[in-house]
Amino acid sequence: MSKTERGVALVTGASSGIGLATAQALRRDGYRVFGTSRKPMVAAPDGVTMLVCDVTDEKSVQTAVDDILVQAGRIDLLVNNAGIGLLGGAEESSPLQAKALFDVNVFGVLRMTNAILPVMRRQRKGRIINMSSILGLIPAPFNALYASTKHAIEGYSESLDHEVRTQGIRVVLIEPGVTRTSFEENITRPDRPLPPYDAARADAEKLMREIVETGDAPEVVADIVVKAANAVSPKRRYTAGKAARQVRFLRRFLPESFVDKSLRKFSRLPA
Fold first, then answer.
1. What are phi and psi of 47, to 5 degrees?
2. Ketoreductase domain: which residues (predicted)?
């Protein structure tokens, strides 16, 4: 396909932030783009067809995929971007709250991927891009459960890529750093907060607000998604932004003790 006809792309969580920027970037690059949101949008982004889809509902996922096939006949690219956050001490969340987080961030990706794979297999061609995070590479205080979902996506994606590569399908990871979106405004708080964590949790929230203000624009991540989507021989993972590249370097090449001390210093925790 030419640059003006890249193929058909589906971006979940495309109503705002990274998802919206990604849908728009893919559209500019020549894709016919479908985006999803949990609720109907008053106005869809220019050139993007928006569908209502709840990634925690298998029927909703399949309906969205079927709608795209009726309208476009194929799906060449899936960007699993929909996700939610959770900020709090690991023991401050009930198992029920943890399950809800995993239902969106991990099993939502699983549902979308399972619905798309038969389509791509029939085409003998397709690419799946899963949105991870630098927290898929490193731990972060008061992000234990969120980081766990991203570590799960890392392992799932890398394993799946080996399984479907001979079918003409590739699976790629994107690892953004801190991005200037409303993510932190909509982040979930623990459902059973405990007094021993109050002060440190408040400091973690303050730090998050500070670093988001100087974070990368969503378009930085979107540009990397386009690069990964079009690469003839894609890399397994792409970092997005300077901070993400630095974190990846630290994790891969420096001693664990140094990384541990650096993380605690950055998080403003006592050594």
1. 80, 0
2. 7-199
Q: How open is the CA angle 7-10-12, to the nearest 5 degrees?
A: 160
Q: In terms of DSSP H, where are the helices of the chain?
A: 17-28, 58-72, 95-105, 107-123, 144-164, 198-213, 218-230, 242-253, 256-266
The topology under which CATH files domain 7-266 is Rossmann fold (3.40.50)
> What residue type is assigned to position 171 of the chain?
V
Measured between alpha carbons, how far is 97 from 83 in angstroms, rounded to an integer? 14
Nearest CA among 73, 74, 81 for reference residue 55: 81
Query: Vertex 176, ends 269 and 37: CA angle to 5°?
Result: 115
Spatial separation of the C-alpha atoms in residues 35 and 37, rounded to whole Å: 7
Question: What amino acid positions are annotated as catalytic residues?
Answer: 15, 132, 146, 150
Backbone dihedral region of 90: left (phi > 0), alpha (psi from -120 to 50 degrees) or beta? Answer: alpha
What region, left, alpha or beta, does residue 249 occupy, with left being phi > 0 and alpha being psi -120 to 50 degrees? alpha
Give the residue from 28, 27, 11 showing the smallest Cα distance to 19: 11
Spacing of C-alpha 50 from chain mean position: 18
Q: What are the pLDDT tens digits along the chain (271 aa)?
A: 444 578 999 999 999 999 999 999 999 999 999 999 999 988 888 899 999 999 999 999 999 999 999 999 999 999 999 999 999 999 999 999 999 999 999 999 999 999 999 999 999 999 999 999 999 988 889 999 999 999 999 999 999 999 999 999 999 999 998 888 765 556 899 999 999 999 999 999 998 888 888 888 999 999 999 999 999 999 999 999 888 888 888 878 888 888 888 888 888 888 7
Total number of residues shown for the chain: 271
- How many angstroms from the chain centroid is the CA of residue 97? 19
